[in-house]
Amino acid sequence: MKNIGIIGAGTMGIGIAQVAATNGCKVWVYDANAKQVETATVGLEKTLTKLVDKQKISGDKMTEILANISIATELKDFKDCELIIEAIIENKEIKTKVFTELENYVSESCVLSSNTSSISITSLGAELKKPERFIGIHFFNPAPLMPLVEVIPSLLTEKTLAEKIYNLMKEWGKTPVIAKDIPGFIVNRIARPYYGEGLRIVEENIATPEQVDDAMKTLGNFKMGPFELMDLIGVDVNFAVTTTVYKDYFYDPKYKPSLLQQRMSEAKLHGRKTGKGFYDYSEGAEKPVAQKDEALYQQIFLRIISMLINEAVEAKRLGVANDEDIELAMQKGVNYPKGLLSWGKEIGYAKISETLQSLYEEYQEERYRQSPLLRKL
Q1: What three-state secondary structure class fits 23?
Q2: Helices marked H in the chain — which ranges?
Q3: Of residues 86, 150, 210, 327, which has the active-site annotation?
Q4: Is omega for the bond preceding 193 within 30 degrees of 0, making it cis?
Q5: Spans of the chain, pLDDT less than 70
Q6: Residue 68 designated active-site
């Protein structure tokens, strides 16, 4: 697959275009907003120039990458593409409309895919004339830097297609994993408690955002705490993913969104991209210093890590992916310092079970129910 179409010229779309073009593919980028494509290509040129300055790539390589990328002015321009990756707004109706139109222009053998982080691949593909050629290819942001790619076949995807895309991603220098088509796939399902439980702790006035972040970084060696990470991802984006996973799991209390996060989204306090989220990123603003409290930090860390490990164990039980891919996904997709299954062994699954049981007894909420497998490990 050397002719690649990218729909959506936002950060994700242009990042995927860069990856494909770097690996010798001819890439066409389309966005309904024509100005966005121009803005994105100018931004890419600046990014590549910085890489040249830092001697990460040569000037010739930069020229080659840019030459491999063309602007598509309409979906018809994708007629010669062998693979198309959609990276637009997380809205099923809008995505479906784009894909059904695309089928009028592309060849019978062209593979159609979505970079969605949470929408069912089966539900998107089911609307197509040829659902067997549809698959999920989920990159992580920023696409040129983050190694993980989740490859998600639907119930209708042709049986050998996942392996073909898996091998293509390896050719592109990525670390692919194959995941079941469940809400959130591997990473966004297992990672939900990192944000959700952090938000819960703050909502209950147990700790401040900076204390939660500091606890997870100092005790867990996470590169970023949940509130720093939400500000980086976008508070609104993180809230949207949580809401989708919650709805798609038929309102399972484990994935219940946070009212605090909803209010932040409504107030457009989206994090770095708006200049203010849980932290203030405006010029001259000072980040609050966490008031350290060893006992509190231990409580925060054990509560959040127990929820994460429980999710990983449940994913193992349900066969969402094999053990190796579950461990790989969390380390390569969201930079966790360790695989959660091995972390559970290290802390002791009995300790994790005891922590969750204590939380369940305190709150009397299904949110804290244990995976049936956890007690057996």
Answers
A1: coil
A2: 11-22, 34-53, 59-67, 92-102, 121-125, 161-171, 187-190, 192-203, 209-220, 226-233, 235-248, 259-266, 294-318, 323-333, 340-347, 349-363
A3: 150
A4: no
A5: none
A6: no
Q: What is the pLDDT of residue 90?
A: 85
CA separation for the pair 264, 296 (Å, rounded): 25
Q: Is 183 left (phi over 0), alpha (psi -120 to 50) or beta?
A: beta
| Ranges assigned E (strand) in 115-180 | 134-139, 148-153, 175-178
118 noted as active-site residue: no
Catalytic residue among 68, 120, 138, 327: 138
Short-list 87, 112, 147, CA closest to 1: 112
Computed on alpha carbons and rounded to an integer, the radius of gyration of the chain in Å comes to: 21
Q: Is 228:275 a contact under the CB 8 Å cutoff?
A: no
Reference 171, options 61, 25, 362; nearest CA is 25
- Omega before 176 cis (within 30°)? no
Residue 150 annotated in active site = yes
For the stretch 90-143, pLDDT in tens is 889 999 999 999 999 999 999 999 999 888 999 999 989 999 999 999 999 899
Q: Catalytic: which of 117, 118, 120, 310?
A: 117
Catalytic residue flag (residue 270): no
Would you call 303 helix, strand, or coil by DSSP? helix
DSSP SS3 for 133: helix
